[in-house]
Amino acid sequence: MSSAHGHVQHTRLLEALSGENSSTRLQAALAIGTHPEPGSVDVLVARCAIEPNFFVRDMLTWALTRLPPEITVPKLRAELRSGCAQARSQALHTLSKIGDSSVWPAITRSLLHDADDDVARSAWRAAVVLVPDGDKEALATELAAQFGRGDREMRLSLSRALVALGDVVEPILRTAMSHHDPAVRAHAGATARLRRDPDAGFDLAVDAARRVVALGLDSEETTSC
């Protein structure tokens, strides 16, 4: 009886993930993660692709991290090939939280350059977590190719990803700071400043880099600040 009751309760929780009220869905995801059942993985992954509420999505990710990686990782890797941008983005986010290094080959160039900003940003974060030391320089080159992309939040995300890669980014930043595009030079300069002073405000770093570009100073001068 107890086992049957538990099964019924779990089924009701899974059904509640598609309820109209976001608070209901949040509580259901919390309960599922608190008492994880391997049989819930398909429903959790599917819900990640369509859940409109950020907080519920984050709880779904948490619930997935509570399950054995050998169950969740293959399901999430499959989502990386989905035609749904949110499915790709949320799968990347969840994989970065699980931290299984075997996923690294699945973080493809197409994901790092995805046309959807949320997917690309999630791919950058996952890549920085999962990349082997020997591939850091190649990853930094791929990321730096997107200097100047998107709005402030997008550029800040890219800068943070590059900074997290450590010393391998230094020569790549120097090259980018002499790029013909002033937006690329400014973004690279702001990233270099953020690397030297992680507590510095990104907006101030961007403004400073733009002033350097406007004054026509070369890359040697920009790295001495």
Characterise the protein shown here.
The chain is mainly α and 225 residues long. It has 14 helices and no strands. Helix 6 packs parallel to helix 8. It folds into two domains: 1-130, Leucine-rich Repeat Variant, CATH 1.25.10.10; 136-225, no CATH class.
How many helices? Answer: 14
Strand content: under 5%
The termini sit apart by 71 Å
Count of individual beta strands: 0
How many separate domains? Answer: 2
**Helix percent band:** 55-70%
Order of helices and strands: HHHHHHHHHHHHHH
| CATH topology name of the largest domain | Leucine-rich Repeat Variant
Global Rg: 21 Å
Q: Show unreliable segments.
A: 212-225
Q: Any guess at the CATH architecture of the largest domain?
A: Alpha Horseshoe
- Average pLDDT reading: 88
The CATH homologous superfamily of the largest domain is termed Leucine-rich Repeat Variant
Quick one: overall form? Answer: elongated
Q: Sheet bearing the most strands, described?
A: none
What class, by secondary structure content?
mainly alpha
Protein name: HEAT repeat domain-containing protein
